[in-house]
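We both want to read discrete structure tokens more fluently, so let's practise on a single case. Would you supply a protein for us yourself, any chain you care to pick? Would you write everything just below, so we can both look at the same thing?
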Amino acid sequence: MSTILSSLKNTVIAGIFLSLLLLITFSSWGVIDASSFSDQAFYSFIFRWLHVLSAIMWIGLLWYFNFVQIPNMPNIPSDQKPAISKVIAPAALWWFRWGAMATVATGLVLGYLNGYLESAMTLGFRGDGAPQHIAIGIGMWLGIIMFFNVWFVIWPNQKRALGIVSAEDSVKAASARTAMLFSRTNTLLSIPMLLSMVAAQNIF
């Protein structure tokens, strides 16, 4: 067991293996049809799972930045801050932005597979929107706004703030503040976004 848990790669592989065992078990119960790879419901199930995994990575890191890293940076001695800015933050930002990309991509595929993508993206303004599709559409648009903030505001500013690209000290300071404000914006939006997603599945 220590061989598995001492390596992140081995841990993830073991998690996937256990998931496949569960998939086979659920298939034997008739819950999903894993025997037919042309079955739309099966692909919908797989993409929903990938969507949730990606979203946990994305929102988990967003909340880590806002609930842990940013509030505690002033308490870290100056000589120790490079460990965060040069090692931890760049690695976290890599998973953060690609988690955002994967979340949006799998969400759009999921909407297409389940037949509500157009209705959700137009928020029912064409008169064909069921309430749950409008609710999930609101969540999707909030997620897309958050994705845009990650890739086109937060990441470019973080590159300057962390010294990944060269910039004047005054520019670094301004970039750090801009990245923080948009990260806080995404934290704000994540709360109603998650509510919309849950409401679409459980209220209507």
About this structure: Residues 1-35 form one domain.
